Structures are given as structure tokens and as C-alpha cells.
Amino acid sequence: MKRIWFILIIISTVWAQEKINIYGYFDEIIDNNVLTLTIKSENTNYVYDDDKHGILIINSDGGELSLKVFWGDMYLGHGPRSVTYRIGTNNSITELWQSTNDYTVAISKNPLDILKELYDSKSTKIILRTTPFQENPITFEFDVSELHSIVKKYPNHFATITPPSVTEAVGEMITRIIIGVIFITMLYGEITV
What we know:
The chain has about 190 residues and is α+β, with helices and mostly antiparallel strands. About 30% of the residues lie in helices and about 35% in strands. The protein has a single domain, classed as Immunoglobulin-like. Strand 1 (about 20-25) and strand 2 form a beta hairpin. The protein is elongated.
């Protein structure tokens, strides 16, 4: 009986593993929190005699978002890489992404557009494809179904891709009205009604 419970605990632990890993720390240089999300691809590609996963990396460095893809140790080549992505059932989009110094990671030039589209579409997957230097195209599919809950859990890190709440919008409007009244009062003197 103990063996059955042990096996059930192990199986439930494996099933309960999250799709998105979250790492965070405080960076004393910039005096801000850094949050990194990593998502392992659902599929593998044959890379240099081995099956490799891709890794989608979303980084918030003090609220400034970046999006990168590690292509499973595949050498991408020098210079920008053409990356095609598709979010859910939307049309595919091709962009030029920069590559890192070791040429195995591609960095999006428009991370806000991609992350906002991911958030707004409520899609559970994103598919990315590139063609490494003198190789066949490689494609990775990522499950981003947990992204909404993570964005809600860390709103300060994702404020640039989420719409403001009604309370924030009303508060901002009232603040602008008050500042406008103060400005007009200072410009024209006392207001009489």
C-alpha cells in the first residue's frame, strides 16, 4: 500500500509541474526587481546528433520587457535572423531578430507587440521558426497557457502589455482634470464662477 501511495505522489508531482518557470531577484545595480520566465518547448528538434528543446525567455528588467528564444544550441549565424511566429490561429508574422554573441539565441526587436498579442489573444500557444546557418528550418511550439495568471500575479512587471483597470483610468482622468484646473488658475489667476 505504501508503494502505491508513493507512486501516486510521484505521478501527481510530475503532472502538476508548471509549464512556465519563474526566477526573480533584486538587482542592486539598477535598484529594481528582475523577473525571468522560461518556457520549455513542447517539441524537440534534431540538433547536432541530439534531440533538443527550445526555450522561450521573457525577461522583465525593472518593467522593461524582452523576449528571446534559445534554439537548442543550434548555431544561427552572424547578423540578424529571420524569425517567423504564429500566435494561436492568427496569421504568421516574419521579423528580423538580433542574435546574441554565441549565436544560439534570437532576441525580438518588438517584444511588447508580441507579448501584448499573446496576452490579448488569450491563446495557449506560440509557434516560432527560424532557419539556422546552412541548416533546415527549425520550429518550436510553446505552451503559454499560464501566462495570463503570471501577468496578473506580477502586474508591475507587465504593466506595459495590460490595459489599465477602470480605477486606474478614472484616477488618471481625475488627476489630469485637477492638474488642468491648477494650470489654468496659475495662468489666468483666480477663477470666479
